[in-house]
Amino acid sequence: MASDEDYTDLPDADSQQLAGSDDEGAATLDDLEQEGAASAEFPTTQSLEAIDGTQGGQSFDLDGEDLDGDEGEEYVDPKPFIQKLRQAWMNEKTAPELLQYEAEAFSIVHSEVNEQDEATRQKRFENETDKFIFNLYQMEIERLRFLLASYLRTRLWKIEKYALHIRLDAEAQLRLSDKEREYALRYANLVEDHQQRSFLTNIPDGFTQDAGGVRVTKPKLRSYVFCQFDEHLGRIEIGDAEESVKVDVNAGDIYIIRYETVRTLLERGTAHLI
What does pTM read for this prediction? Predict the structure, then answer.
């Protein structure tokens, strides 16, 4: 389970700009937020609980149906998408590589946050009970804002760390959103240009060649992660070529295991990282 604090120290990626870059190449987190990101705020990350309240005889529920909305609009329950995005955030925090961008879940949760925030701010409260309910709603909205922003920041941190690798790996690029892909390629070009102008021009040609990206920083897929299985998978082989064992995996089992062993299971949704 996630703790009440953002337990991973990430750089302030949205304020970074590589030395020697120009204005055209200085993309920030704002570029990614154009796809629906919320501003970065840092409340707690507890599970979203349903809170029901009344204001002026009208019922409103952050997780449930917006009773004040237009009757002709089809309502989409955000609860499963909130849970999906929260798990995607946890997986992204723990996995050594960039995972698939959860575009649908992010878009729906972001839209729900904006709509509920606007709806609660327009209400007028005449007593302390209503004000207390309003504060609870705002707290839940801030938690979701943190989830959205931290999800993007974690991905942005990985993009900057593995930018050169992403540029060489077509499969990795397919896991990015359009804005993320654009940012990754621009950032990789900035890094390469900066290195060329700073020191590579003074190094003999024989030492600057990197055929196939051998010296490019790549994700460590053999690193260990905490993994919980969501289904009974029977006996699976874990370990590596030198030392491997077969274990009987049941739903709910938790293992410390190499990431590359459960990589495919994460993509299928039969396991998740914790």
Answer: 0.70
Do residues 152 and 37 touch, judged by C-beta distance below 8 A? yes
| Amino acid type, 134 | F
Q: Alpha helices of 8-162 — where are they, by DSSP H?
A: 29-33, 79-94, 103-121, 128-161
- Report how far residue 200's alpha carbon sits from residue 205's, in angstroms, rounded to the nearest whole number: 9
For 138, the token pair is 């705002």
- Reference 98, options 269, 226, 262, 218; nearest CA is 218
Contacts of residue 82, Cβ cutoff 8 Å, sequence gap at least 6: 48, 63, 105, 109, 112, 144, 147
Q: Which residues pair with 249 in a beta bridge?
A: 234
- Tens-digit pLDDT profile for residues 16-72: 443 444 444 444 445 544 544 433 333 333 333 333 333 333 333 444 444 344 555
CA angle 73, 119, 122 (to 5 degrees): 135
The first and second tokens of residue 30, run together, are 């704002």
**3-class DSSP state of 170:** helix
